[in-house]
Amino acid sequence: MAAQIEERSENRVKFEWYFSSSVVAAKEELPGIISGVCDWAPAHPIYYVSEMPMSQWSWVIPFIPSGEHNYVKLSNKLLAEFPELRNEVERNPVKFWGDGTHGQYDFNGKFPLVTLDDLKGKKVITLGKWEPKWLEACGSVPVNIPLQERFTAFQTGLADANTGVLDYFVGYDFYSAGGIYITLVGFGSRTSGYQVMNLDKWNSLPTDIQALFNELAPQMLDWTADFSVENRDSWFEKAKAMGFEINTLSDEEKMKWGELVKPIVGEFVEYLEAQGLPGKRFVTRISEISAELGEPLPINYLE
Which of 22, 82, 98, 122 has the fewest CB atoms within 10 Å of its CB? Predict the structure, then answer.
């Protein structure tokens, strides 16, 4: 997208790129955009649990669509249908385009995850308010450790496993720290961050440049899915070459896990409803849209 904007604007717009966390830490992306420290960045809702309660949905409901393009369709349809969800972003002084994906979330650890009993007593790195509850339901001990510190956590025994995407496991070389097993759990694809720009910067752009951004933004969201799909096979090959042992969690174990998570989804609905938000209707639509996309949720979490 950036290259197209530069070309089509005849270089009236130029982008400067910075590596992740080199300007602001991941959990400071949204404040960094609001303050103008950076002009444009992904704002990851997992770091804003209180401010973005509805946006936590993909960390509340396991086994949502794994297909990256389906995730983008699902998330942006929810944003279109629920103004309360969109308002979690737009009540901030930002220009907001929508949600992309980083790809499918799975499991990596010092042990293969074959049955839920394998999680008992294990220290598993996770994030946010809701996913730790999934792990507690299985008898494991959730720990919150930043991605950049997980290698050391594996080495020192502070953690036995973590959830994430393949490029985390391979790119950070958790294999060398003892995390030699990857279990394809299929938690579902998740956000690469809400795409937002500082509002003052947006308002300073000429109208034709704004139109160019708005034209290309939907394609940008699809490109995040394209990128994840195109690179997943290569990450698999790299994982195999490094020596990772890869297995798949059975559908039977997924169903057991889903049943354990039912009360957590119910708690999420009540949590939203207590704030005047449409919790039950929201979760119902997640289920309905997932089915429409050909990736139905494995169980009815609201039964």
Answer: 22
Q: Using CA atoms, how far apart are residues 78 and 62, in angstroms rounded to an integer?
A: 17
Tokens 């209180």 found at:
50
Topology classification of domain 2-292: D-Maltodextrin-Binding Protein; domain 2 (3.40.190)
Q: Which residues sit opposite 40 in a β-bridge?
A: 197
Query: Rounded to whole angstroms, what are the CA distances from 102 to 115, 194, 230, 253?
Result: 26, 11, 12, 25
Buried b (16+ CB within 10 A) or exposed e, 222-245: bebbebbbeebeebbebbeeeebe
Q: What confidence tens digit (pLDDT) does each residue in 138-160 have?
A: 999 999 998 889 999 999 999 99
How is residue 77 annotated by DSSP? H
| Interaxial angle between packed helices 279-292 and 251-273, expressed in degrees from 0 to 180 and rounded to the nearest 10 | 140
Alpha helices in 121-206 (DSSP H): 131-136, 150-156, 166-171, 199-204
Where residue 140 falls (left for φ over 0; alpha for ψ -120 to 50; beta otherwise) is beta
> Could you tell me the two tokens for 39?
């002009």
Are 199 and 95 in contact by the 8 Å Cβ rule? The answer is yes
Tokens 């798949």 found at: 248
pLDDT band at 217 (very low <50, low <70, confident <90, very high): confident
Please tell me the distance from the alpha carbon of residue 207 to that of residue 282, in angstroms, as a whole number: 35
Looking at residue 116, what is its pLDDT? Answer: 98
Q: Are the CB atoms for 126 and 162 separated by under 8 Å?
A: yes
Amino acid 3: pLDDT: 85
Whole-angstrom Cα distance, residue 278 to residue 54?
9
Indicate if the pLDDT at residue 24 is higher than 90: no
Q: How confident is the model over 178-192, as a mean pLDDT?
A: 96
